[in-house]
Each structure stands twice: as structure tokens, then as C-alpha cells.
């Protein structure tokens, strides 16, 4: 194959010369010089259009171009080395790129430093990210492609340099709501507690952002604080809908090996998101042993103060069956002990012979005669609610010693047979780890009984 024919294979159809920084578009797979594509995009954008593929496929061209193809460049270096060297030399002589107005560089990331108005309406919000396309011919504006415009238009905007800023470090945006991932000590009496929420107001350079925290406590400063970008994170719900520093409680006893390390109802605090499926929680166990665990969302429940009529430790009875979507979890009349609050209408209850369950306070009554009268399981429905007749026979199985425990331990391995002795934590130092047979699957333990 003649060199001319080979060179033809590497021709950019915009400049009709050998490709420099060959860049392949995903729309149709055609390749062009990176600079030719930039010029194509800029010309189209400044003529008020939306740049489309120069290969003729009509797809929109991305303003952020992909990296150039190393394979194509190497192939040219091997097959047409002399022509390529000559082409590179020409391009170098041609021009040196001038910075844009305000010192910004074309094709670099920026953000709007203030709201950008068209007439009286905002078309780009302060903080919106975008990319500089180049100088406008009028000698004072820059053409910018913002990622989002308030009016939904995809066209570029011509703005003065004062309306632009370099992007904040860490991918943060102005006004973004963030949460403190650590307790941030400022001085002896000012600190920002873990989980404090604030919003980003700027950056002092490097990898620091300035945050104005919401002064919910008197020790939180009312002035902006400069923090490292790793000390805060965008405020968003974590897996399971929990949040940083949220107060939680174990929804079941957590077992490591065959040892209960955290009892159902034990309080804790969410420290971080450990993975896509687990949260790191520090539990207030009495043990000196490690008390930080990476738990699944179903292993914890939100915690709040209990309602005044049901303080923690109160003996209660279910006034009607507590249901999961397909089974009765707790029968009407079953006794239990309040462990803690979940939200204003839900409490976490350890029921006799069964799992600890988040129950609506409307489904509970104070057990005035905790000793004596035997509850009639599955009987008298006082709530008037229509309950299906599918009673679970096994729920009648009694625990070895009723009332021996104010915390119900849930062993996922426990079978439906008589309470096995092996689940008693002999000599483990845990006061109340008598497992009882569980009728419902592990995943039905946490449920909203409403
Ligand atoms: Zn070209
Ligand atoms: Zn195309």
C-alpha cells in the first residue's frame, strides 16, 4: 500500500489532513482532530446552534470530548511517521492558544459565580457547572456551555468573566448542602459536631471549602468554617434512608460467631456509610469490646424518645394482631416491654416468645396486671380491625422462662422447634440472651404495622 493511501486512512474530514490528537465520537465512531472538533463546536455554538456530528450522523456532539485515541496515534507513528512529524511541526508553528477573558481557559470546567439573568428571569443558577467554549467576538463576553439552564435550553450563554469562577474542589457546588463526617474542633469551646448540616459558600483554595453550618447548638459557630473536602460530604440519605449521626437502635440482636455482641434495642449512632449495603454504627454497649459494627439497614431502626405514655421499660400488651404483609408477627394480647421510640407513632417492643418489633402505639396498651391473667393469644380482637384467621400455631410455643429477659435476642439460625438450649449464652457475660423460636423470617422483623 502506498504511503498516500495509508495516510488517507488517517485523514480528518474537517481539515482534510492527518489527524492530530485523533478523537473518536461515540455517536458514529468517526474520528477527527481534537482541535478541529473544538473549532466545529465553537463555531456552531456561537452561531446560536447546537453542534451536531461533523460526520453527518446528526447526533449532538458532547462539549466535553473524550480523550484522544492512543491506538490511532501509535498506528500513525508506525505507518506514516514522516508525515505525522511534519504535521505536528506545522500545527506548533500555527498558533499558541490565548487565554480567554478573565484568565479562563477554553474547554476547562467553570461554575457560575452568581445567578445569570436574561431580562428579569434567572437562566443559570449560581454554582451551576459548565465548560468554557471560548471568547465571544464582542471583546468582553465568554461563550459558556452550562450543564443545566433554568429554562431547559441547551444553547450556550455569553457571560462576562465576573460571572464565572473556577469549580470548587471535591466536586462540591456553591450552596450545596453538606454534612460533617467528623466532629470538627475549632478551638476550646467551639466545635462542629458529627452530622452537623450546613451549606458551601466558597473555597479558600487547595482542597478546602468554606461551610456555613446551621447553628443548632450554641457551640456551633455562626461564621463560615474552612474545612477539608474529606471532612464533609453532600447531604443525602444513606442506604436504608439513614443519615450521618442519626440516633438508631439495634432492631435485633447482632451475633458475631455464636456470641451476641449487641442486643436488640441497644442504642447507637450512625457514623458513616461503609458500603453500598452497610452502615457503620457505634453502639452504646456496656462491654469494653469493640462496639462499632458494619450493619445492614434492616438490623437497625431509627431511635427517638419514647412517647410519655409509654416510657422505656413499660410492660405493654398488643391490643390487636401485629401484621407483616403476609403473616401475623405478634398476636393480640401478647405481652412485651418497650425498648425505645422509633418515631412519634412507633415504639420498639420486645414481645414475649417472639421477635422485637416496631409497633404503632395505637396497637399497644399498658399491661396493668403484668402478673396473673394469661393473655388469650389470638383471641378477643378489641381493635375491631378485621384480622385474617390465619393464626400461626407455633406462636403458642412458650419461652423456657417467660419474663426472664427484658431484651429479646434474635438468632437468625434459630429453628422453629422447641427453644434449643444451645442458644443460651452460657457464661458469656450477657444477662439476657435466651433465644426464643422465631416464627417469622428475619426480614419481617422490622415492619411498619400500620
Ligand atoms: Zn482535522
Ligand atoms: Zn456521528
From TrEMBL:
Q: Which GO terms describe its molecular function?
A: zinc ion binding
Q: Which residues form the RING-type domain?
A: 12-54
TM annotation in the entry: none
PROSITE patterns found in the cross-reference section: ZF_RING_2
SUPFAM superfamilies reported in the protein's UniProt record: RING/U-box (SSF57850)
UniProt keywords, alphabetically: Metal-binding, Zinc, Zinc-finger
- Is the keyword Secreted in the record? no
List the Pfam families.
zf-C3HC4
Q: Where is the composition biased (Basic and acidic residues)?
A: 383-396
Know the name of this protein? RING-type domain-containing protein
Amino acid at each position: 500500500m502506498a504511503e498516500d493511501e495509508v495516510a488517507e486512512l488517517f485523514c480528518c474530514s474537517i481539515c482534510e489532513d492527518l489527524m492530530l490528537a485523533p478523537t473518536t465520537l461515540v455517536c458514529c465512531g468517526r474520528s477527527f482532530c481534537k482541535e478541529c472538533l473544538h473549532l466545529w463546536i465553537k463555531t456552531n455554538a456561537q452561531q446560536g446552534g447546537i453542534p451536531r456530528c461533523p460526520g453527518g450522523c446528526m447526533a449532538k456532539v458532547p462539549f466535553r470530548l473524550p480523550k484522544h485515541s492512543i491506538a490511532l496515534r501509535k498506528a500513525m507513528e508506525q505507518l506514516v511517521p514522516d508525515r505525522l512529524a511534519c504535521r505536528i511541526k506545522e500545527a506548533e508553528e500555527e498558533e499558541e492558544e490565548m487565554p480567554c477573558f478573565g484568565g479562563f481557559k477554553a474547554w476547562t470546567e467553570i461554575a457560575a459565580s452568581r445567578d445569570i439573568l436574561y431580562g428579569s428571569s434567572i437562566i443559570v443558577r449560581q454554582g451551576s457547572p459548565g465548560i468554557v467554549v471560548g471568547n465571544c467576538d464582542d471583546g468582553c463576553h465568554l461563550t459558556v456551555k452550562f450543564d443545566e439552564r433554568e429554562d431547559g435550553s441547551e444553547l450556550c450563554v455569553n457571560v462576562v468573566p465576573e460571572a464565572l469562577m473556577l469549580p470548587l474542589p471535591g466536586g462540591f457546588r456553591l450552596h450545596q448542602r453538606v454534612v460533617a463526617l467528623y466532629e470538627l474542633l475549632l478551638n476550646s469551646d467551639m466545635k462542629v459536631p458529627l452530622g452537623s448540616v450546613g451549606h458551601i459558600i466558597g473555597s479558600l483554595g487547595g482542597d478546602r471549602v468554606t461551610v456555613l453550618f446551621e447553628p443548632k447548638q450554641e457551640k456551633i459557630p455562626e461564621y463560615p468554617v474552612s474545612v477539608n473536602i474529606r471532612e464533609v460530604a453532600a447531604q443525602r440519605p444513606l442506604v436504608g434512608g439513614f443519615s450521618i449521626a442519626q440516633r438508631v437502635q439495634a432492631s435485633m440482636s447482632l451475633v458475631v460467631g455464636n456470641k451476641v455482641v449487641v442486643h436488640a434495642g441497644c442504642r447507637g449512632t450512625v457514623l458513616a456509610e461503609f458500603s453500598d449495603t452497610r452502615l457503620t454504627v457505634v453502639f452504646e454497649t456496656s462491654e469494653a469490646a469493640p462496639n462499632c459494627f458494619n450493619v445492614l439497614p434492616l438490623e437497625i431502626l431509627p431511635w427517638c424518645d419514647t412517647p410519655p405514655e409509654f416510657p422505656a421499660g413499660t410492660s405493654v400488651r398488643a391490643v390487636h394482631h401485629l401484621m407483616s404483609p403476609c403473616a401475623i408477627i405478634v398476636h393480640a394480647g401478647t405481652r412485651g416491654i418497650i425498648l425505645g421510640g422509633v418515631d412519634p407513632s412507633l415504639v420498639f417492643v420486645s414481645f414475649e416468645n417472639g421477635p422485637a418489633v416496631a409497633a404503632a402505639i395505637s396497637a399497644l396498651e399498658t399491661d396493668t396486671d403484668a402478673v396473673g391473667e394469661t393473655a388469650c393469644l389470638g383471641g378477643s380482637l378489641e381493635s375491631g380491625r378485621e384480622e385474617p384467621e390465619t393464626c400461626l400455631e407455633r406462636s403458642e410455643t412458650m419461652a423456657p422462662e417467660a419474663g426472664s429477659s427484658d431484651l429479646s435476642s434474635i438468632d437468625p439460625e434459630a429453628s422453629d422447634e422447641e427453644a434449643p438450649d444451645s442458644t443460651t449464652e452460657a457464661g458469656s457475660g450477657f444477662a439476657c440472651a435466651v433465644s426464643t423460636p422465631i416464627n417469622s423470617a428475619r426480614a419481617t422483623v422490622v415492619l411498619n404495622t400500620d
